[in-house]
Request: fold
Amino acid sequence: MVAKKRILSGMRPTGPLHLGNLHGALLNWIDMQDKYDCFFFIADWHALTSDYENTGKISGFVREMMIDWLSVGLSPEKSTLFVQSHVKQHAELFLLLSMITPVPWLERNPTYKDQIVQLSSKDLSTFGFLGYPVLQAADIIMYKANGVPVGIDQVPHVEITREIARRFNHLYGKVFPEPDSILTQTPKILGTDRRKMSKSYNNAIYLADSPDIIRKTVATMITDPQRARKSDPGNPEVCNVFEFHKIYTDSQTRQNIDKQCRGAQIGCVECKKIMAENLIKALEPIREKRHYYTAKPDLVEEIIESGSNTAREVARQTMEQVLKAIGI
Ligand code: TRP
Ligand code: SF4
Reply:
């Protein structure tokens, strides 16, 4: 039997997960669980690179993130689910890789330059923030991952990872494969204001939202911007609400809505109500599982521990090879 390819990806625990995360990453990860040997982890040390002044929420976010993951269908039976800081070898490999990573590779990293501008309220002139991709490289090559499912914004980091792996192999002998990015399609659904769905824009629908909150949030969604009144014909093709219908509403109802919208026979208020109820129904099983895991903190802790143990054993073996190759 040919060994399954190994896949690895991670998320920073910066807050609760929303539908953008679900359609942009998690559903893809869930699909991969049966085909590949998957490692998924919560990158809590990476959260420190930008939030080192406010660390109070990180550990709660880690637990919540694992609950979200389990609730949408990531399975500890199929995949190795773990937390970065529970596998100290990541720090050791990060240190060793930092010895061979030229600073200009990091300084010209596009996400580095972007983030410094975008997060101007934070002092990001730290060694750790510059070294973000080196830690990410350690995360990835520690498990000799072949593929890294990521959004387009993370591709430069995987590219730097390949360069670091190549340099290591060149200097000390071949230990690491060079991982490929597996590009995740960006979801068509946008936030309530039609910008990318994001916690920082305050335009997100969260997996943990109650039905009432979902109804209220959906009611605020911007629709076809050309349509001011019910008597104006609308255009579903440019309407974000309709993108949600494409996911959550059955095709017969959706075709009717399409016709009625174009013919000015249905108003946006009613159309949104239909969508909100379908969305609420679709999220119901996730909400139930969230309740289940939220009521069982020990179980969640156990799942994190057991996944981290598995990861640690792989990491231990890699570090043996790494130290031997370097000769210390
Ligand atoms: N940098 C990634 C993000 O912000 C998170 C991350 C950390 C990651 N280490 C990783 C993703 C390794 C893939 C592989 O989304
Ligand atoms: Fe969008 Fe529905 Fe309004 Fe048409 S009726 S513009 S599809 S919200």
Remarks:
- The domain at 6-189+297-326 is CATH 3.40.50.620 (Rossmann fold).
- Residues 297-326 form the longest helix (30 residues).
